[in-house]
Write a structure and sequence with these properties.
The complex is a heterotrimer. Chain B is an alpha/beta fold. Chain B has six helices and 13 strands. Chain B has a nine-stranded mixed beta sheet, with helices on both faces. In chain B, helix 2 (66-76) packs across helix 5 (190-197). The longest helix of chain B has 17 residues, at 36-52. Chain C folds into three domains: 7-114, Orthogonal Bundle (Butyryl-Coa Dehydrogenase, subunit A, domain 1); 120-229, Butyryl-CoA Dehydrogenase, subunit A, domain 2 (Beta Barrel), CATH 2.40.110; 232-381, Butyryl-CoA Dehydrogenase, subunit A, domain 3. In chain C, helix 4 (81-100) packs antiparallel against helix 5, helix 9 packs antiparallel against helix 10 (348-355) and helix 9 packs across helix 11. Classes of the chains: A alpha/beta, B alpha/beta, C alpha+beta. Chains A and B meet through helix 4, strand 7, strand 9, strand 10 and strand 13 of A and helix 3, helix 4, strand 7, strand 9 and strand 12 of B.
Chain lengths: 331, 254, 382
């Protein structure tokens, strides 16, 4: 029996999509394989999240509730996860490779004396689990395992695991003992302010199911509104190539590529992006790629499932209008 | 003030990746560069030095080619460098790497005020070493920082979360990993390249350090299967949109 | 014998390469279209110390050797021949000032030139005296404390905007070029000094090139550069140095042509496969790559000899001849590999095709290079 503990991350009292994917994936795997799956929830108010975890097919839930978890503090959260993991002694502790997951995984590993493999996109179960992780920004892949002596912490890239259809279960909750941090709450790390950056409904790039992305061919920052309009219709996030970011048209946090975000959406629409190796590295794991570019020789067409040789500035408004029309008809 | 900067040699981001007959990553003839994120860390350290005065020490762990990365750090303005020589490559176990780096820092560099590093390396995309080091050294860590300011015994950071930015104050000594956008790294000037030649690089062979086992092992490497080109249409006056809509429908995006 | 660069040379090259590829190349196509001087890159290069690299420390330099200098020019020219050319001009001017100038002249002119605060010109060529320097018509006649300069210089880089120019003029017709020509520092604002309108150039269109016209320009005696009558020798010395640089510039263009061709031929699909799979393409690439390697060796050999303080005129001429002919061939083949695309301004090779031509012409035409080489070869055989 392999013991898996999944840290179920939440934002605004809701389970994050990336965690949902992991919980569902393992609950389905556990139906056929000797796996014991437990979810760990840490938060100020966890009822909603517990229900959602049940819907992901995971029954056993360890909950640590407390006001100290209201706002994110890496040390406090890491302490709680360490406590939960020490109590349960899993073989694998799995987190989503989100900003939070990335931030706390090595801290937890450091405290517990465990190793860590991050940003995995697939896994294989034989006697043990082995993990597949892209290296050199997806230009190669590595299959990685623990050393067999110590438990392993794993972070899983959002959108990467095979989609599954888990069977809901009634959660069984046990309360964890929250670690005592009295007199040591801040550990030299004081959160002063949180500023929300994403406005409206746009999902974060790394979790978006659809991404509409623009490059040098967009000609200027003013034309990104065309991408935003299309994104709104599709419920997509807007990304940019390095050329567009370097030109100052978009902020760096929207850059897709080797020195930006690595994304794995279901659909990636590249507009006016030539497809430099740097860019391809960041989005080549997208399941479907649509490319619009004036240059028929642009390398992006090599990996595109559907390519249009043409001017994105002219095609985008027509596409957005068509999609709007389509949506109206189907509603 | 003493600032340590962790720098890593990585393959050039333009490099093509191939496997040799043993299934290992071919590293012959691959141009090495400083991990681009570490250049932001170096630049930030040098700016602090120029503004407030500080000693900047660049530290790397890895093969002999790492010297190039350290010379670049010195040419950008670091005062001296430490090279932990080892045949561990850029894909080695992160916890193990952190163990060795921490050991050296705990030794002669224990009086540091600030450690700066890139938040991630472009080769293994792991983003783990700084987290481990913060635990081994028991110092606070702010990750993925886009703005940084020193204030008395504190360093104030603006960090990137998922959809939020957070303002954080760390008590020194502390570790901060930086994100693109924090600055524009300088090119070393001709003069500074010459000056870098005279700056010291201390070599520490990894065998001199207390050993540790790797916690993760690479079973094998493989190359992604390219999926082959799809359908290409040439647009004339927007006529391609209909075909694209059909494609969306077929793929069930709409 | 060792063909490796030393660590310093490698670091210089890497720095200039990074700068050229990240800062220069993205602006080049646009500046070429607008025929605008690359001010931003020029000032950046000054800040990085590239404009002063061969000078001693007191003038902001690092006394870089000739191989480092050739490497820097090659890397710059890969991104923009215009930028490389502008920087080579500063090197020529500061070389003359530093080698022949008085302390006052050096202190007055070298710092603003290498800091990119002012632009300078190097004025030898005339409408009727190109290769044939002996027929120089610009005259300088001593009148009291001043020389009075009359004449027109043609195809002068920076002339329409220069703050200063080193002008070569005939001071003694009887003596001919050797002994009869003198160099003067002519300053902007001197009465009688004017410039023609900028030429509409075929290539390297970001350069500002035009005539420099002198009508009774009174140049104070203190502005004589070097000794009276030494001008021809100085100009020839400059040309020898310049040939290595021009060769490196041509090499940079050829390398860019090759790199663009490789990239394009791997992307461009015809008959169901990338054209890189066809031998017709492969042979072109193989020729270019081989000749580029040969050119680089010739250039580094000439630079090496120069640094050893031994004669390098023949090798410099060979390097210039071979590299500039190569640049023209390589750019031509690159356009051919690009097909119709290469004939449009959207593609870098179109610019390379225009930028390369001048390298066969200036700093001594390739015909003159052959004369120089032949003279050396026959002399050696005696």
């Amino acid at each position: 029996m392999i013991n898996i503990m999944i840290y179920a991350e939440q934002t605004n009292y809701k389970l994050r999509k990336a965690s949902r994917e992991i919980l569902g994936y393992f609950s389905v795997l556990a139906q056929e394989q000797p796996l014991q799956v437990t979810a760990l929830v840490v938060g100020a108010e966890c009822n909603e999240v517990i229900k959602e975890i049940g819907r992901c097919g995971v029954r056993d839930i360890l909950v640590m509730e407390g006001q100290e978890y209201q706002t994110y503090h890496p040390n406090i959260l890491a302490q709680a996860v360490v406590q939960g993991a020490s109590d349960l002694r899993p073989d694998y502790l799995v987190l989503a490779n989100t900003a939070v997951g990335k931030d706390i995984a090595p801290r937890v590993g450091g405290k517990l004396g465990w190793g860590c493999v991050s940003d995995v996109i697939d896994l294989e179960l034989t006697d043990n689990l082995t993990f597949v992780k892209p290296i050199y920004a997806g230009k190669a892949l590595a299959q990685i395992a623990g050393n067999g002596q110590k438990p392993l912490i794993v972070t899983v890239r959002p959108n990467a695991l095979k989609a599954v259809d888990p069977s809901p279960v009634e959660p069984v909750v046990s309360k964890g003992v929250t670690p005592d941090l009295t007199g040591n709450e801040h550990l030299g790390y004081i959160l002063k302010e949180v500023v929300a950056k994403v406005t409206g409904k746009t999902p974060p790039l790394t979790e978006a199911d659809i991404i509409v992305s623009g490059g040098r061919g967009m000609k200027g920052p003013e034309n990104f509104v065309l991408l935003e309009e299309l994104a709104e219709v599709l419920g997509a996030a807007v990304g940019a190539s390095r050329a567009a970011v370097d030109a100052g048209w978009r902020e760096h946090q929207y850059q897709v590529g080797q020195t930006g975000k690595t994304v794995s959406p279901s659909l990636y629409i590249a507009c006016g992006i030539s497809g430099a190796i740097q860019h391809l590295a960041g989005m080549s794991s997208a399941r479907t790629v649509v490319a619009i570019n004036k240059d028929p020789n642009a390398p992006i067409f090599k990996i595109a499932d559907f390519g249009i040789v043409g001017d994105a500035l002219k095609i985008l408004p027509i596409l957005t209008a068509e999609l709007k029309k389509h949506l109206k008809q189907t509603q | 003030m003493k600032i340590l900067v962790l720098v890593k040699q990585t393959f050039d981001t333009e490099a093509r990746i191939t496997l040799d007959e043993k299934g290992q990553i071919c590293d012959k003839d691959v141009n090495r560069i400083t991990n681009p994120y570490d250049e932001f860390a170096l630049e930030e350290a040098v700016r602090i030095k120029e503004k407030n005065g500080a000693e900047v020490v660049a530290i790397t762990l890895g093969t002999e080619e790492g010297e190039k990365v350290l010379r670049n750090a010195l040419a950008m303005g670091a005062d001296r460098a430490i090279h932990i020589t080892s045949n561990l490559d850029g894909l080695a176990d992160s916890r193990k790497i952190a163990h060795y780096l921490s050991q050296v820092i705990k030794g002669e560099e224990a009086d540091f005020d600030l450690i700066l590093a890139g938040w991630v390396a472009v080769d293994n995309n792991a983003a783990l070493v700084p987290g481990f080091i913060s635990e081994f050294l028991q110092v606070p860590l702010a990750n993925v920082v886009t703005k940084l300011q020193l204030q008395d015994e504190m360093v104030e950071c603006e960090r990137e979360g998922d959809g939020v930015s957070e303002i954080i104050s760390l008590k020194l000594p502390a570790l901060v990993t930086v994100q693109k956008g924090i600055n524009e790294p300088r090119y070393p000037t001709m003069k500074n390249i010459m000056a870098a030649k005279k700056k010291p690089i201390k070599i520490i062979n990894i065998k001199e350090l207390q050993e540790t086992e790797p916690y993760t092992l690479v079973k094998k490497f493989y190359l992604p299967v390219s999926k082959g080109a799809g359908k290409i249409v040439v647009d004339e006056g927007g006529n391609s949109v209909g075909e694209l809509m059909a494609f969306f429908t077929e793929k069930r995006f709409i | 014998m060792d063909f490796r660069l030393n660590e310093t040379q490698e670091m210089f090259r890497d720095m200039v390469r990074n700068f050229a590829r990240k800062e220069v190349a993205p602006l080049t196509q646009e500046l070429d279209k607008k025929a605008e001087f690359p001010w931003k890159n020029y000032k950046q290069a000054a800040e990085l110390g590239i404009l002063a690299m061969t000078l001693p420390e007191e003038f902001g330099g690092v006394e870089a050797d000739s191989i480092s200098y050739a490497l820097a020019i090659e890397e710059l020219a890969w991104a923009s021949a215009s930028v490389a050319d502008s920087i080579m001009l500063v090197e020529a001017l500061t070389y003359l000032l530093h080698t022949y100038g008085t302390r006052e002249q050096q202190q007055k002119w070298i710092p603003p030139l290498v800091n990119a605060e002012i632009l300078g010109s190097f004025a030898v060529t005339e409408p009727n005296a190109g290769t044939d320097a002996a027929s120089m018509q610009t005259t300088a006649v001593l009148d009291g404390d001043c020389y009075v300069l009359n004449g027109t210089k043609a195809f002068i880089n920076n002339a329409p905007v220069a703050d200063m120019a080193i002008v070569f003029a005939v001071t003694d017709k009887e003596k001919g070029p050797r002994g009869g020509i003198t160099a003067f520092i002519v300053e902007k604002g001197m009465p009688g000094l004017s410039a023609g309108k900028p030429e509409d150039l075929l290539g390297q269109r970001s350069l500002i090139v035009g005539e420099l016209i002198m009508e009774d320009v009174r140049v104070p005696k203190e502005n004589v550069l070097g000794k009276v009558g030494e001008g021809f020798k100085m100009a020839m010395k400059c040309l020898d140095n310049g040939r290595i640089a021009i060769a490196a510039l041509a090499l940079g263009i050829a390398q860019a042509a090759l790199d663009e061709s490789i990239k394009h031929s791997k992307q461009r699909v015809q008959f169901g496969q990338p054209i890189a799979n066809f031998q017709a393409t492969q042979f072109k690439i193989a020729n270019m790559a081989t000749e580029i390697e040969a050119a680089r060796l010739l250039i580094h050999k000439a630079a090496f000899l120069k640094d050893q303080g031994v004669k390098f005129s023949k090798e410099a001429a060979m390097a210039k001849l071979f590299a500039s002919d190569l640049a023209v061939r390589a750019a031509n083949e690159a356009v051919q590999i690009h097909g119709g695309y290469g004939y449009t301004k959207d593609y870098v090779v179109e610019r390379l095709y225009r930028d390369c031509k001048i390298t066969q012409i200036y700093e001594g035409t390739n015909e003159i290079q052959r004369v120089v080489i032949a003279r050396h070869v026959y002399n050696e055989s005696e």
